[in-house]
Amino acid sequence: MYRKVLVSIALAIVLLAGAAGVALGQDTPETAQPLVGDTPASGTITGSNAGAFGYHIIDYPGGDIVVRIVASFAPGDPATLAGVGFNVYGPAGFDVGESVPTGEEDGREELSHSEPDATRWLVQVYNYIDGLTVSYTITADGLPAPEATPTPQPTPEGTPTPPPAEVPTPEAPTEGGIMALEASASGALTGSSAGAFDRYTLSYPGDNSEVTLTMTFAPDDAIISPGVGFTIYGPEGQEFVAGATGDGSERRVTLASEVAGTYLVQVHNYIGGVTINYTITR
Q1: I want to staple 114 with a disulfide (CB 3.0 to 4.6 A). Which of 7, 66, 82, 265 is the partner?
Q2: Which one is the CATH code of 2-141: 1.20.1250.20, 2.60.120.380, 3.90.870.10, 3.30.70.120?
Q3: Where does 179-281 sit in CATH, by number?
Q4: Sequence-distant (≥ 6) Cβ neighbours of residue 175 within 8 angstroms
Q5: Cis omega before residue 150 (within 30°)?
Q6: Cα–Cα distance between 90 and 113 in angstroms, integer?
Q7: What is the pLDDT of residues 134-171, one digit of tens each?
């Protein structure tokens, strides 16, 4: 119970720090490494009295499939296991559960869980042993195997090989089909793992005057936030990427350029199945 309280407090600190724009290195929810199929992932964590963490994400398919998450720690003696383990959280910080020793051998902890709906889990591996570096390997058994990439078939002799498809560069339409961004614009955007987008045009005089755009969105949590934002594309390939402001549900960028013309403002959502409501103001 004591360990659980410490971990819950530590997660709250991590989420608040992330929302405040504090640089947390690689061990943050925003840089979580995915667990796919039965493929293991590994890491090292040097412990701290305040807690040190590693993060992974699991895209759970739903259907009440039981997924067994197992982490192996080294060293794995009982004294070390008292301060290491992992927690699993759902959207909006929902507490899925905490790992327990497997009872099979030293240094292994596990958690099994299932639920009817598809969702994304955040796995937080922790180490509260101050100054002690532990290595770990973690797997999520029971997940469907990732779809295999099709093997290219040989081209028969004499058959011309088609040129590779070009990836289109976002362009800034000057009229038709895209709403102009005046003082503000609002919308709802349902995410996709391949990216979902809303677009607006912005007329800019090209005199290096500063135009600041700010986007707020909801819902906001540590899992959704990394996949939501917006970018401004210029008529000559310029790119202005909105960044965090210190408020986890806010993105902002300032446009200043010598190039006059119509710029494209592109809102994105890469969180599959999650609908965000947003407002952009200038």
Answers
A1: 66
A2: 2.60.120.380
A3: 2.60.120.380
A4: none
A5: no
A6: 11
A7: 999 999 998 877 665 566 666 556 556 555 555 444 44
